[in-house]
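Follow-up to my post from last week.
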Amino acid sequence: MDELEFRPSEVARWLKSGKTLALGLVVPDVTNPFFAAVVKGAESVANGAGYSVVLCNTDESPDREHDVLANIHGRVDGLLLAPARDDAETVESLDALGVPVVLVDRTLPDPGSTDSVLIDNAGGAAAAARHLLDLGHRRIALISGPLDTTPGAERHDSFVATCAEADVNVTVEHGEFRVQGGYQAAMRLFGRADAPTAVLAANNLMTVGLLRALHDLGVRVPDVVSVIGFDDHLLADLIDPPLTVIDRATETQGAVATRMLLARLSEAASGAGRTVRLETNLIVRSSTGPPRGES
Amino acid sequence: MDELEFRPSEVARWLKSGKTLALGLVVPDVTNPFFAAVVKGAESVANGAGYSVVLCNTDESPDREHDVLANIHGRVDGLLLAPARDDAETVESLDALGVPVVLVDRTLPDPGSTDSVLIDNAGGAAAAARHLLDLGHRRIALISGPLDTTPGAERHDSFVATCAEADVNVTVEHGEFRVQGGYQAAMRLFGRADAPTAVLAANNLMTVGLLRALHDLGVRVPDVVSVIGFDDHLLADLIDPPLTVIDRATETQGAVATRMLLARLSEAASGAGRTVRLETNLIVRSSTGPPRGES
DNA sequence: CTGAAAGCGCTTACAG
DNA sequence: CTGAAAGCGCTTACAG
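User reply:
Got it. Predicted complex:
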C-alpha cells in the first residue's frame, strides 16, 4: 500500500489551500559574497520551516526588479527583498504583490507595515571615520555607493558627518556597488593632485575595484594611502597588506529576515513594521596607518 | 476594464496545465563563488524563458540533498543539480522526481538520459601538473577534494597520472570542498619532514584554506612552495603573491545547463544524455616558480 | 462566434 | 465513523 508511493499533487493542494509554501528571495547580485551568504541563511531557515525559496537576481537594475516582482506574483506566500533602488515605484510593485514583505539590508521610503533587517551602517561608517581621524588623516575620501540605496546613503552620511565633526571635508566619488564602480571611482580619485591619504570603500565589491586601481596606479597601501573596506572578505587577511574592514554577520541577516517573514505568515500579525539593526565591527589589520609625514 | 488589473491565479493555471513553470536548482554551497556564478547564469536564462528558479542549498550533505529532492517534488518542471556525492542513491531520488534533470559540474554513476555540463577537469589538472613539472618540481602534492565527486575524482586522477608520466609520485591529502578542508589537509601536508615544493588545491575554497595554513606556518610562496589553485578568485591577482590558477567560465556553465534543460522541456526530447565539457585555462601568475635549489 | 460545462487533483464540510 | 459531493480558479473542448 504505502509502497506504491502515492504522491499527492502539490499544485492541487496549493489551489485548495490558497498557499504555495514558497518564499520569494530577490537580491541585487547573488555573486556578491554578502548576498550569497544572505541567500544561504534565508534558504536554510525557509527549508527548515517547510518553505521553498524562489530566487531572483535583479543585477542591481530597477527594471529587472520590476519585471521580477511582476513574474513572481501568485508564486509565493511572502517575499524577502533587497531592493535595487530606494524608490516609490518599488513600493507600488510590492503592494500589487499582496503578500507580506521583509526588506533585507536595504529599505524603502515609507515602509509602512513591512519589516526590515538592516545593519548599523551609521555606526560602522563612523567607526571607520574615527579610526582614520585617530591615525591623523585629514585628506580623507569616500568611494560611495548610490545614494538612493540604504547602505549607500547611510554609510555616506555618517562617514561625512563624523569627519565633519573633526573639521575634515570628505572627498566623495560615487559608483555602482560593483568592482567596476569602485575601480572607476578610485581612478577619478587618484588622478587628482590632492589625492587623499585615506579612503573608505562603501562595499566589498567596490573595495576590490579600489585595490585593483591602486595596484594598477602603483599607489602603495598603507604607505601612501590607508584603505578600509566595508564588509569582510574571505581573502582579506591574506592580501598585501591585510585589509582593515568593517565586518558584520551575513548569513544571520538572511536567517533573521526569514524568521520575521515566517512570523508574519503564521501569526497573521499585522501591526506596524519592525526594523532590526545588526551590529558592525571594525577589524583593524594592516591596510591603515598614519599618513606619510609630508606637511 | 484593464485598469482593474485582474490577476489570474497562477496556481490554478499550473493545475490545469500540469506545469509549474519553475526549475529546481540544487547546489552544494551557494557561498562558494563558483556556484554563486552558476546560480546567476542559470537564473538569468530561466527568467528569460519565463521560468522561476527554486533554489536549494545542500551544504555538501547527501542527507540534506535527499530531503531537498523529496521536498521539491511536484514543485518544478525540471531540475538543475550539482550533486553532493556521486552515488546511486541520488539517482533513485532523481527517478522519483520524474522530471528532466541536467547535472552541473558534477555527474552521477550511469547518468542514463540526463544531460551534464561539466568542465575539462582532466585537462586543467594536467596543465597544472605539467606547469609544476616544467618548473623542475619533483616533490609535488595535491590537496584533493572527495573522490566520490566528479571534480574531486577527475582532478585527482589526471593530476596524479600526469605526474606519474614524469615518474613523480604525488602526495595526496583529502578534504571537503571547504576552506577548513583545505586548511586541515595543508596542515597535515606541511607537518611532514619531506614537505612538498609544489601543491595544487582542488578547488577555490580549499585554496583559501591552503593559503591560510601556509600563512600560519610561515611557509613562503613561491620561495618554499609553489601553489596553484583550481578556480580563479576575485582577489587572486591582489594577494601576495598573485595566485596561479586554473580558470574556467562560471556563469556560462549555469547558463548552458539551463538551456539544455529548457530544450528537454520544450522538445520533449528523449534521446540519450549529452555531456558538454567547457574548457579550462591555466593563468600563470607569481605563486609558482622553480623549486629552491637544495639538492 | 459566443457561452456554459467539464475537469485538473486535491481538501473539507456534510450527509448517511 | 465512513463516503460522496462540492469547490479552489483556471483552461479547453463542445454545444448552441
